[in-house]
């Protein structure tokens, strides 16, 4: 089709408001998904995306739509993740679009991520169509959703399209709105070739695949291209689109989104945000790229069976081919042996990576509690960045400690203000603003230490607001804080992998609560296990796990052999994710006890 008939857009929304389901319906109504493809959220391809019902990677898909007036339009849709950890995926996708569908759940209304995404779209100068979804729900309140879109987002909601991505109601009207209200790309197919890399990943058969938006010119096989950031040159082997399966096309023109396969062996050579030009073209300015992703949360990852160290290293090598947002380097722990320290975008990202490592690479792992990057100024004035509590220096040699802050925006119905403010204060938050967005909805702005947010803040926010509060945040500055290292000792031995950093004023309560939690997590053993918490040389709390009295098999003594075997098997299974530290077996749960404190 001609350029006037191309529409390139993405769907943005708060998590769970129905982006992926809406993408399914659009594909179905344009004939891309048949009856047999009716798995929900088609674009969530990874097993883990399906099970958790969340989108992790942005996906692009091309559809053809015949409008009511008979014109055939080409629609390039990008589905994006909604969780804060993956925000950088959203900003990349927006750079590749001319318009967005802003989806708002009719029963939930506008939430924190809705606003954050709208701001990104407005910054990128994109046309926005408000879409009110889930109108089939009995609790749907379209008028309220409209009012919130007008009052909180500041968009004209009279144009909003009401749909049910579940039943398909309103989808035809939405498709018409897309071709009517969203602009065609302004790109020039005759200009010099310039393309923006939206994503790149490793494919076992094809090598690196780059998802690009061509901003100017026309790309086709056999052209020699140059990747500006790395200054590497490659010949294009193939161009194509996802519809939704990969389909080879002889060219990609300005304004189009599609894939590019060159003979690239390493994803770092196809950097997200980089600009691709023709190797023969002279110097030109790169397209405005994206912010480099920053790892915010760090944790040690160790094989429970030390023989799996080499396997873990290979798995990390392969996994990071696909997900360049994880960093890793070797780490040694007195307690856990050889492993790696990984950097993640956030907690959800951390969980997902651990799960993928275990599942896709068949590993059995222990991850330590997450930590942030602290900045430590020593007495001699030297500055050190420490992302591992076990490496935190003793108080004697510290002149100043600084920790990263976030600016959190919390949206909530006013009924929950009390408990939410209390939670923020307990987490050392400093209130910066409290605004009524509507007569009943409030936006609270808090400066909070990232280290506190990392320790289960999100779950607690949800539970103290019955799920109604939502959070979005930006990274803030480093601030000075009175932090100490809290050590845990198991039968008198310090377990380095259990150390954590906490504010001095909270250290006593944290230490006490942790000992209690640990006691629940560590199974009874043949002997008594003492758990102690200490700051420096001072013991601040202690609990004891009593010795096991009964032999588990005694019960079935003389009894039926298959039952006995089953019991042994069950025990063996329960052994997974247990690590022997000294002579005490410590399960994974104990390493994350800090995340479970209330
Ligand atoms: P995303 O996180 O924005 O991609 O949301 P999903 O598309 O994964 O949808 C979240 C949940 O809402 C899923 O359980 C969907 O089945 C459900 N859902 C999506 N759209 C609708 C709708 O129009 N009506 C109803 N009743 N449920 C919907
Ligand atoms: Mg999704």
Automatic annotation (TrEMBL):
Q: In which domain of life is the source organism classified?
A: Bacteria
Q: Which GO terms describe its molecular function?
A: GTP binding; GTPase activity; ribosome binding; translation elongation factor activity
* Membrane topology value: Peripheral membrane protein
Per the record, what are the reactions this protein catalyses? Answer: GTP + H2O = GDP + phosphate + H(+)
BP-aspect Gene Ontology terms: positive regulation of translation
Return the InterPro entries for the record.
Answer: EF-4, EFG_III/V, EFG_V-like, EFTu-like_2, G_TR_CS, LepA_C_sf, LepA_CTD, LepA_IV
Mind listing the UniProt keywords for this protein, alphabetically? Cell membrane, GTP-binding, Hydrolase, Membrane, Nucleotide-binding, Protein biosynthesis
Question: Which residues does the UniProt record annotate as the domain Tr-type G?
Answer: 4-186
Look up the record and report any one GO term of the cellular component aspect: plasma membrane
Q: What class of enzyme is it?
A: hydrolase
EC number from the UniProt entry = 3.6.5.n1
Give binding positions for GTP. 16-21, 133-136
Q: Where in the cell is the protein located?
A: Cell membrane
Free-text function comment from the UniProt entry: Required for accurate and efficient protein synthesis under certain stress conditions. May act as a fidelity factor of the translation reaction, by catalyzing a one-codon backward translocation of tRNAs on improperly translocated ribosomes. Back-translocation proceeds from a post-translocation (POST) complex to a pre-translocation (PRE) complex, thus giving elongation factor G a second chance to translocate the tRNAs correctly. Binds to ribosomes in a GTP-dependent manner.
Q: Which NCBIfam families match?
A: lepA, small_GTP
HAMAP family per record? LepA
Family per record: Belongs to the GTP-binding elongation factor family. LepA subfamily.
Q: What is this protein called?
A: Elongation factor 4
């Amino acid at each position: 089709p001609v350029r006037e008939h191309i529409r390139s857009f993405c769907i943005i929304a708060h998590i769970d408001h129905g982006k992926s389901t809406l993408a399914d319906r659009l594909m179905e109504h344009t004939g891309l998904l048949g009856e047999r493809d009716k798995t929900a959220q088609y674009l969530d391809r990874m097993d883990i995306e399906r099970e958790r019902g969340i989108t992790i990677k942005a996906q692009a898909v091309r559809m053809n739509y015949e409008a009511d007036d008979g014109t055939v339009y080409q629609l390039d849709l990008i589905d994006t993740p909604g969780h804060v950890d993956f925000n950088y995926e959203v900003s990349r996708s927006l750079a590749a679009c001319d318009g967005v569908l802003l989806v708002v759940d009719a029963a939930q209304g506008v939430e924190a991520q809705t606003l954050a995404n709208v701001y990104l779209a407005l910054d990128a100068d994109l046309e926005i169509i408000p879409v009110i979804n889930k109108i089939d729900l009995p609790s749907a309140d379209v008028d309220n959703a409209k009012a919130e879109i007008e009052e909180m987002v500041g968009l004209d909601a009279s144009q909003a399209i009401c749909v049910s991505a579940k039943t398909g109601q309103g989808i035809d009207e939405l498709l018409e709105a897309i071709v009517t209200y969203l602009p065609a790309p302004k790109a020039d197919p005759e200009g010099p070739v310039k393309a923006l890399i939206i994503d790149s990943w490793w494919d076992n058969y094809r090598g690196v695949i780059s998802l690009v938006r061509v901003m100017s010119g026309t790309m086709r096989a056999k052209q020699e291209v140059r990747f500006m950031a790395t200054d590497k040159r490659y010949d294009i082997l193939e161009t194509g689109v996802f519809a939704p399966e990969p389909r080879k096309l002889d060219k990609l023109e300005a304004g189009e989104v599609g894939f590019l396969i060159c003979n690239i062996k390493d994803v770092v050579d196809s950097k997200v945000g980089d600009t691709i030009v023709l190797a023969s073209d002279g110097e030109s300015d790169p397209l405005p790229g994206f912010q480099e992703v920053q790892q915010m949360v760090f944790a040690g990852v160790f094989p429970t069976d030390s023989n799996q160290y080499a396997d873990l290293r290979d798995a990390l090598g392969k996994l990071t081919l696909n997900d360049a947002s994880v960093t890793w380097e070797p780490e040694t722990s007195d307690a856990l042996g050889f492993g790696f320290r990984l950097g993640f975008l956030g907690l959800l990202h951390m969980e997902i990576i651990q799960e993928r490592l275990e599942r896709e690479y068949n590993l059995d792992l222990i991850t330590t509690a997450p930590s942030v990057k602290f900045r430590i100024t020593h007495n001699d004035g030297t500055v050190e960045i420490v992302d591992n509590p076990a490496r935190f220096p003793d108080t004697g040699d510290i002149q100043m400690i600084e920790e990263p802050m976030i600016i959190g925006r919390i949206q909530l119905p006013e009924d929950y203000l009390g408990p939410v403010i209390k939670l923020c204060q307990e987490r050392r938050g400093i209130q910066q603003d409290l605004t009524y967005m509507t007569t009943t909805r409030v936006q609270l702005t808090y400066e909070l230490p990232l280290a506190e947010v990392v320790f289960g803040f999100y779950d607690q926010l949800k539970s103290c607001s019955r799920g109604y509060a939502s959070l979005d945040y930006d990274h803030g500055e480093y601030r000075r804080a009175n932090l100490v290292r809290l050590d845990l000792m198991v039968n008198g031995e310090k377990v380095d992998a259990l150390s954590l950093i906490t504010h001095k004023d909270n250290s006593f309560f944290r230490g006490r609560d942790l000992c209690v939690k640990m006691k629940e997590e560590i199974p009874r053993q043949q002997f008594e296990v003492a758990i102690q918490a200490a700051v420096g040389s001072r013991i601040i709390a202690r609990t004891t796990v009593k010795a096991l009295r009964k032999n588990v098999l005694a019960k079935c003594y003389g009894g039926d052999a298959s039952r006995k075997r089953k019991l042994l098997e069950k025990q063996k299974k329960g052994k997974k994710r247990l690590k022997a530290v000294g002579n005490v077996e410590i399960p994974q749960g104990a390493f994350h006890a800090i995340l479970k404190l209330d």
